[in-house]
Specification:
By secondary structure, the chain is mainly β. The protein contains no helices and 16 strands.
């Protein structure tokens, strides 16, 4: 039996997990009675101080392309990769730009191999960024989901396709695992 909390747990507090005796194993074995396990969380990490509303100000530069449902990924060099998204109505872009420490937005010369919106972007251990799935415009005004994936390399400023996922998906999740692999799960598919 494995359990994972649905949200961050309070630091330095006691919690209880109760497993009901009606729960059966895959082989059909039942617990003889309800089982209760208690545990205490540690001190945890102090959350970062977030800026107050008065400390926020507009960036000096502006995006080169207005977009929504795009991704923004913090790169290891401090810049931010902004990729894809809807530009208006059902138009989706394959363009990306980088927000730099000088607060400028630089449109990349290279385009993504696949236009995409509502996709995921995951920074890998080596600093590259994996982009997976999302919407694309199959024909004017007609959206479809993609299984395509590609990698952005900050050192070259280019995108490279890395093969398709098993299924197409949009609004999914992607998480970097400790061993460097990326778990992509959930989401929706459009079969129109």
């Amino acid at each position: 039996l494995q359990w994972q909390p649905q949200a961050p747990m309070a630091a330095v507090s006691t919690h209880a997990i109760i497993v009901d005796s009606s729960v059966r194993s895959l082989s059909g074995v039942r617990l003889p009675r309800d089982v209760t396990t208690t545990f205490r969380t540690g001190g945890g990490v102090t959350p970062p101080d977030l800026p107050t509303r008065d400390q926020l100000r507009p960036a000096v530069g502006k995006l080169n392309i207005g977009r929504r449902d795009h991704t923004a990924t913090h790169l290891s060099n401090g810049a931010v990769l902004i990729a894809g998204g809807f530009t208006q109505e059902t138009n989706i872009t394959a363009r990306a730009e980088v927000f730099t420490s000088s607060e400028s937005f630089n449109l990349l010369q290279a385009e993504m191999w696949q236009e995409r919106a509502n996709h995921t972007a995951t920074r890998l251990n080596d600093g590259r960024v994996l982009l997976t799935g999302g919407w694309y415009e199959a024909s004017i005004g007609v959206l479809a989901t993609t299984a395509s994936a590609e990698v952005y390399s900050p050192s070259t400023g280019t995108f490279t396709p890395v093969g398709d996922m098993t299924i197409d998906r949009v609004d999914h999740a992607a998480a970097l695992l400790p061993d460097g692999r990326v778990l992509v799960c959930g989401g929706s598919r459009y079969e129109g």
